Here is the input.
Amino acid sequence: MPNTHNIFTKLVCHLHGEVPADTLEAYRRASGTIYDLLDQVERRRLECQADGLDPWTVPPATQAEMLCAWNAFVLQHLGDQFLDADYKENPLTVGYVPPITADQILTFYSQVEGWVSRAQQAHSNTGYKLDIAVPAELPAWSRVEPCPNTHLHAMLEAMRSVRDHAQAALGFLPDVSKISNPDRLKQAQEIHQLMAKALSKARYAEDLHGQSPTREVHERVEPFIKEAIETFYTVGQLISMPERATNINQPVIAPPQVTPQAAPQPPRLQFPMPGQQGFDPWMLTDPSQRYRLKRDPQAQQAIDELWRLDPNPAQTITIQNEIDAALARGDIQYSVGRNGARLGHFFCCPWGAVYVAVRPQLLGGQWLNTMQEFVFDVTAEGVRLGETFKRHIKIGVFQTTSDFEYGDPNAPADH
Here is the structure.
């Protein structure tokens, strides 16, 4: 009977285009650690309160531990809820999920380990300083709107739980009437204002959703649930590090429009171009892989062909230099996997490194949020078939793979 069920399940999943959830289940197995970490931090917060401390007087390392544990919890809980909601609504395909659901869950899960690692480092080192910009934004939601019903149900359940934990944490803030320091008073007021906004969005979403929403109601309630979760995520971080709450509620003012003629011109930098002395054709390749790949004749041929087909090598070199400068400043880092080791490089020529943004920034014309992973994807695949040479910052969730490609200008691009 189990084998028959497995065959039937696989058939149903194949017909519906669902994919195995093995990787997602592996991430979910780590959830016990995250929830234990949250319990530990919440107990620590109560101990600090009993000792007469408040969010401003808690040691900096403990603040960092609390913030990172909060972020890990929210992300893990979102992923868990999305997985549970799909299994509950589609019991015949437990162990499989639609690709859009898999991508959304993996987007959440992929950031958990980074926050857990930082929380554990902060717990073990009283001199720990957070190396990443906060408050961090929640990873992007699926671009499909309206979202599937299972996504809406998952977000609603996650919103309720995250709200409860955020409200409990808010009790750590002293009453504003007892805060004499003007800077701290302003920060506390900013946090309370943000919390009021989140609670209002959550309440409206619940009331609007009701028991069995129509498709029209579904579309209306979705943005309220998303905004509530995003705001609770921010609130939890600010309760841990209230100094980061200064002007958090101020509207973002767009910079004035500047005409091209009046726009300040950056200093013109000269870099060796292909064919010139000093040019390094391996500059796009992950530094840890250059020595090995330089000794691969097929890789050398692929790199040379890539540069020959690049219609604007100056633009490619400029973006790579932006990346190198951001790495040197500490604005980005090499991405690491769950084992703490370097995640590696992109599977296709020119085999660029996988990075993660440490703080929000514009890089290569692409806006990056904190904790977003990316590669500089440069490809000449399909160029000889009339396709456009491509160079762009590719944001995604990257995992270890055995795939390796040299890139073929005579074949259509498939990534």
Notes: DSSP finds eleven helices and eight strands in the chain.
